[in-house]
Design goal:
With about 900 residues, this protein is of the alpha/beta class. It contains 22 helices and 39 strands. Strands 15, 16, 17, 18, 20, 22, 23 and 25 form an eight-stranded antiparallel β-sheet that branches. It has a six-stranded mixed β-sheet with strand order 11-29-28-27-12-13, with helices on both faces. Helix 7 runs parallel beside helix 8 and helix 7 packs antiparallel against helix 17. The termini are far apart.
Length: about 900
């Protein structure tokens, strides 16, 4: 009996163990291949669960909304299916002030929910932005991307990337929506600052150096934007009509580089259209090129709301469900929208069969594969036991990066570096005190402004005088505020102004809509003022009272797309009723303080893309002339002046003019009249035209957006503790009339000059000065004749012939002298940042392999054609010091 009982218990235990083992699904077995695990998990998922793996939203968890938590609409990327079939989206809206430990705990809390409390236990991937540092509290802010490109230093870029990896991982971040590897082919584009410049080779190498440490350490990179996110006129997300050849030669190389060599596992599409097809649903671009031809195995995500853009931007889809179907069928894997509630617009074709199940499974499989590769199923949580690390080494790296990024543009008579024993110096300009970081930036760790950096550098022995200058913008008028407008609506007095909206252009009949608008300040671009109105055919009449808080004769008027009128007390003050352009029309009107005047504004729009504002200069302190005079007076008290100026740019902030905005050019001119030595420091992420003032100052520094240690770095360069060696990653034109202007264009059919302007730039690609001088000599090949499949080496000597240690950026350019298809006049194919002590000489070697000599022939085959190639070594694309010919034999 005892033996029988013992064996009975033993058999029960064995059955329990075996039964438990059988309950573990294959997708949770780490001993199986990733493909096996993906396929097992796919067959267990419902159509709704699959959709939620492909839907991401920039919303965060709201602890006061448990339903939203349960249904996964709190912003975690590529979520896990819940018992209700819904999952998390994507996390983006972090609290920038949240500590690393707090964020890690919050991510773990959400991860725990999806891993332990949902039906399938699929983990999430938390993501953030990291263009030049993670955009979170306690994270290091390095120079903006264009400044990192200006270092021409891939080893430095790897160090920076490794720091960002470390700061990301301890917070639980496993994906970054970076870097931007679009080619900045037109410097009017507002997002040039986010790029690595105009050249595909430089961009490819800097991008590879950036993404590799992330992917090697289990953080997904998402280079963007596919493809050519800047169009005619330097306009953001403008439609492009580019040949396959041009895309392959210029725009595709950086993406192919990070896919094939960097291991990047995600990529983001652009908002624009390519040959009439939205990039987020382009079968040719996404399926044929990226997935089939290039063999990309990662997942493709849209830019925020780009899929819905097929309705409101490109007009290629009748409704949102159809745009969802077009995108996924066209090769997109993940739909990125801006709100949880949008899922209702995009989920239908996933459930009703409009999207082929195989297409859905392929997209979901790509996302799941990334999660398995990251090891999230086995190790979903980040350690919450964070050791407070001394970040001083990160700040030192930020300082070094800023130093290396600074470009010495002009230095007549060696005015720089300045003597640290200077008794007094004037620092002028708001940008000297602001410490701007540029787009997609975190708060930084104790950022140092240029003014503060100079003060700390000079100490108490020198007097540093500061004046704000005239600022980047001069505010000449403002929108009339709500508290100065009133109306009577439904027999009740209220603030604001009554708006009557008509579905015609003549204010005929009864208004379609009547409402109270707080003020007249509208921009209706992708939509009409109200769903009841047609987007491209409506008129508005605003009526009410206006009251000025002070007496005087002021300017009042309208700013926007013309087709507007302004009446005060029944008198017509502004009349631009013909639809022609955008304008600001102002008229003088005498107001008495607190007196009420009748106000009427009329506006109509027969095309769409409308903008209208009621503006005046009441309360505007338009004293830029006085500020300039104060700055001049400050300079007169000093031995020298550092004038810090800046530009305005950013996403959807393209620049029609490349001149310094506001009255900064006047500021420079007036200060130059003092006769004091003037150094101009330019803050900004793109080119600036300078012909109106550059000959009036002896020195110019381009410092980009230099990051949290930028003030120290600029001071290091100004006062000689660091010898600048940054190089321009974009061409600086003389005038906007030359644009687009890039160094690597194809040979022209005739000339490239205008009859009143040179075709050459103000400052060329690759340009930058130093406090020392370098000479080049002794160019020679290992072999000067090679076959199409062979490689060779080219050597040359470089010597620092000055009296200061310094860096030189040596640049290798190649030109195919005779080809079956026209080739660029030159192409960057190699670069090295070389450190040389005063008087030191080094031999430099470039390895020339077939990939550097390839071109696309008439059949769009990538080949090395026999013939002669000009090998050129120089310090910029215009300053070529050494040349020899390499022959490729048949």
């Amino acid at each position: 009996m005892r033996i029988s009982f013992f064996y009975t218990v033993l058999l029960l235990l064995i059955f329990r163990v075996c039964g438990f083992a059988q309950e573990v699904p294959p997708y949770k077995n780490p001993d199986l291949s990733i493909d096996e695990r993906v396929q097992d998990l796919l067959q267990r998922m419902s159509p709704e669960e699959k959709f939620w793996q492909l839907f991401m939203i920039p919303e965060d968890f709201d602890s006061n909304d448990p339903n939203r938590y349960r249904y996964g609409a709190f912003g975690f990327q590529f979520g896990a299916a819940s018992q209700d079939g819904n999952v998390a989206g994507q996390i983006l809206n972090y609290d920038a002030s949240e500590s690393a430990a707090s964020l890690a705990r919050r991510i773990n809390k959400m991860q725990k929910y999806f891993v332990e409390e949902t039906r399938l236990g699929i983990p999430i991937i938390a993501f953030s932005e990291a263009l030049h540092g993670l955009v979170l509290e306690g994270c290091t802010v390095f120079p903006q991307a264009i400044g990192l490109a200006a270092t021409w230093d891939t080893e430095l870029m790897k160090e920076i990337s490794s720091v960002i990896v470390e700061e990301s991982k301890i917070r639980g971040i496993r994906q970054i929506l970076s870097p931007v590897i679009n080619i900045a082919s037109d410097v009017r584009w507002g997002r040039v600052e986010e790029t690595y410049g105009e050249d595909p080779f430089l961009t490819s190498k800097m991008a590879l150096a950036f993404v590799s440490p992330f992917e090697e350490n289990g953080i997904i990179t998402t280079p963007k934007h596919l493809i050519a996110n800047v169009g005619d006129g330097g306009r953001d997300s403008y439609p492009i009509h580019m040949s396959e050849r041009f895309l392959e030669e210029i725009h595709f190389p950086p993406f192919k580089e990070v896919f094939s060599k960097g291991g990047t596992r995600s990529v983001m599409t652009s908002y624009n259209s390519l040959d009439g097809e939205a990039c987020s649903s382009s079968h040719w671009l996404l399926n044929e090129k990226v997935k089939k031809e290039w063999g990309f195995e990662g997942f493709i995500i849209s830019d925020a709301s780009a899929v819905g853009g097929a309705n409101v931007l490109h007009y290629t889809s009748p409704d949102y469900p159809s745009s969802s179907e077009q995108a996924i069928t066209g090769g997109l894997d993940v739909i990125f929208q801006t709100a949880y509630k949008h899922y209702e617009l995009f989920i239908p074709p996933f459930l009703d069969g409009r999207i082929d199940k195989k297409v859905i499974d392929e997209a979901v499989g790509r996302v799941l594969k990334a999660k398995f590769e990251l090891g999230l199923f086995e190790h979903p949580y980040v350690s919450e036991t964070l050791i407070k690390k001394d970040i001083s080494e990160h700040k030192e790296l930020a300082r070094q990066a800023a130093r290396e990024s600074i470009v010495l543009i002009k230095n007549d008579q060696g005015i720089l570096p300045l003597n640290k024993n200077i008794r007094s110096i004037a620092v002028i300009g708001t940008d000297a005190n602001e410490a701007r970081f540029g787009g997609y930036s975190g708060p930084g760790n104790g950022k140092i402004s240029i003014l503060e950096g100079i003060k700390q550098k000079l100490g108490k022995n020198s007097k540093v005088l500061y004046a704000e200058g005239c600022g980047r913008n001069t505010i000449e008028w403002v929108t009339v505020p709500e508290n100065c407008l009133s109306n009577t609506f439904n027999h009740k007095k209220a603030k604001g102004i009554k708006g009557e909206y008509f579905n015609n252009l003549t204010f005929s009949g009864e208004p379609t809509l009547t409402r109270i608008d707080k003020k007249v300040d509208f921009q209706w671009t992708l939509f009409s003022p109200n769903p009841k109105l047609e987007n491209d055919f409506y008129s508005v009449r605003w009526s009410g009272k206006i009251t000025s808080p002070e007496s005087g004769t002021f300017k009042i008027g309208l700013d926007g797309n013309d087709g507007y009128r302004l009446f005060i007390n029944g008198k017509l003050l502004i009349d631009r009723w013909d639809k022609l352009t955008y304008s600001t029309s102002l008229a003088d009107f005498h107001f008495e303080k607190n007196k009420t005047y009748d106000l009427n504004v009329e506006f109509y729009e027969p095309v769409g893309n409308a903008k209208i504002r009621l503006v005046w200069n009441v309360g505007v302190d338009d004293n830029w002339q006085e500020k300039i005079q104060k700055s001049v007076a400050t300079v007169q008290k000093a031995e020298a002046a550092i004038v810090v100026v800046g530009i305005n740019e950013g996403e959807f902030q393209d620049r029609a003019s490349l001149a310094l905005p506001g009255h900064q050019e006047t500021l420079i001119g007036e200060i130059a009249k003092t006769g004091k030595p003037v150094i101009v420091v330019i803050v900004g992420g793109s080119a600036v035209t300078m012909t109106n003032w550059m000959n009036r100052v002896p020195a110019i520094l381009g410092v980009w957006y230099p990051g949290e240690e930028g003030g120290h770095a600029v001071a290091d360069v100004l006062f000689g503790d660091y010898n600048p060696a940054g190089r321009l990653p974009v061409t600086f034109p003389i005038s906007e009339a030359q644009l687009p202007l890039v160094y690597n264009h194809k040979p022209t059919g005739r000339g490239d000059d205008y009859n009143n302007l040179s075709g050459l730039p103000l400052f060329p690609f690759g340009y930058g000065l130093s406090y020392t001088q370098f000479t080049y000599s002794n160019l020679h090949f290992e072999k000067d004749t090679i076959s199409q499949n062979e490689s060779t080496r080219v050597w040359f000597n470089i010597k620092n012939t000055g009296d200061r240690d310094g860096d030189e950026v040596v640049q290798l350019y190649i030109r195919d002298l005779l080809a079956t298809v026209a080739q660029p006049v030159m192409e960057l194919k190699g670069f090295k940042r070389v450190r040389l002590k005063a008087g030191e000489e080094k031999e430099i070697c470039f390895f020339i392999e077939p990939d550097l000599l390839k071109m696309f022939n008439r059949k769009m085959e990538e080949v090395v054609e026999p013939g002669d190639f000009r090998i050129m070594i120089g310090t910029s694309s215009r300053d070529l010091r050494l040349k020899k010919t390499l022959t490729i034999s048949k």
